Amino acid sequence: MKKNLILLLFIVSITFLNSCSESSDTPDLDPQIETATIKITTSFSGSEPATNGEFKITLSKSLSTVTNVSFSISGSAINGTDYETIASSISIPKETTTYTIPVVIIEDNEEEGDETVIITLSSTNNNNVTISASNKAIVTIEDKPVVIEEFILLPEETRSYMVNPNATDETVALFYNLKTVSKTSFIIGQQDAFNSFYNDNTGASDIKKTTGSDPGLLGSDFMFITDDNNNGNSSNWFYQQEQIITADAIEAYNKGMVNTFCWHLREPYEGDHFYADDMTEFQRENALKSILPGGANHDYYKGKLDKVAEVTKGMVGSDGKLVPIIFRPFHEFDGSWFWWGKNYCTAAEYIQLYQFTVEYLRDEKQVNNMLFAFSPDNHYDSEIVYLERYPGDEYVDILGMDNYGDFNNQGQTGANRANSRLKIISDLAIDKVKIAALTETGYRVTSGTNPIANLFSTYYYSTLTNNDVEISFVMYWNNNNDGYYTPTPGTSDAADFIEFTNKEGALLQNELPDMYNLPN
């Protein structure tokens, strides 16, 4: 019994000592604190139009918790405009040391120079994460202009871009050469140059009297040719005008010049007027509608087109070839001084008339020596407005603009405005593989209206050449007994006009390339 008691006391003692050993007075250490530093660097910069940049945010060690990082965004590039929107904070997942922020470039097709995106780290949600001295990084967006391979119209492909794929070889060559000329030059032309003169001083064209060369382009009109009073008799004044006009066009072709015809078509009810103010209200409101297919005067209109076709197909040069012409029907339609103006028809009605005119001449009458020009006045400042009544690429060869207003004592401001408008059609012509032209213009000088100093050598020249516009020709309206649009010898602005015609790129008849043959 005594031995058993001693053994029990020994076991209790050992248990007590072990218990005391396990509950030592030495305190436990705190859990290890996770600390890290964070920095931002630029992975790579970007460039317009399609090379993106990138920032990289780096923790010095991975953490067991998510780290939220806030930052500010600055720089000359605009967040959400020059690049896709970047938020002002990110979350770095746990057990991760890096996070990338892409700078996705938004191409704006503008030349702006190099721009920057700057991110500066400001705070985190973890007091144990220290922002290092490398707290700011910059991505540069380099402004690399888009290099677009220049389109070159090949002679053998020209027909595919024309309204009439069955055009005569000479008409195809005219399209090709006008397009080619517009790259570096512009042709100077005038309406009725062989048949209308200042002070009725007949003989050589007024431009030839002044410069020594005829204009490079002759403007004519189908108005008298299609007049109701033209009965085809040799004694008839209107028929005589037809003979003069067609003879002038043939002479121009034989000289290598370009021919363009407008059409001041008289209203179809009485056949008296083309200016809306001279017509009755009924005539103004119904004239255009009445010549559309199904209209009361549609057959009358087809008869006029028959005459246009007859005359165009009857003009033959000394080489035995049909004379190519540019036909510019229903011009200045964005004004309302003509009965085909915007106040007297809808856009759809105008387009229908233009399309029918082309289809009837090309398909029904098989007129194959004609290019078709579309020419509003200067009442547009955007591509959208210019194209409001555009009949379509398959109906238009030449994109034109008539413009008198911007040269009516408007100085360089007006010239710049006209140049901006030409830039719109020049860009469209490049895109559509068409020809751009200043189809009608001028400033009329009379005994009571003085010339504008430097009108030609400064204002017109800058209009036709600034901003890399590609304009094939400019046509001034006709001189007559009482006034002129192009100066004649002895007038105070003759020297200015001569200087204009001698400037780089300006072409008169004696400087024209062969407009009616394709290069080999």
TrEMBL record:
The active site is at 332 (proton donor), 440 (nucleophile). GO terms for biological process: cell communication; substituted mannan metabolic process. One of its GO terms (molecular function) is mannan endo-1,4-beta-mannosidase activity. SUPFAM superfamilies: (Trans)glycosidases, CalX-like. GO terms for cellular component: membrane. This is Beta-mannosidase. Keywords: Calcium, Glycosidase, Hydrolase, Repeat, Signal. Residues 169-510 form the GH26 domain. It comes from Gramella jeungdoensis. It holds the Pfam family Glyco_hydro_26. Residues 1-19 form the signal peptide. Gene3D superfamilies: 2.60.40.2030, Glycosidases (3.20.20.80). Belongs to the glycosyl hydrolase 26 family.
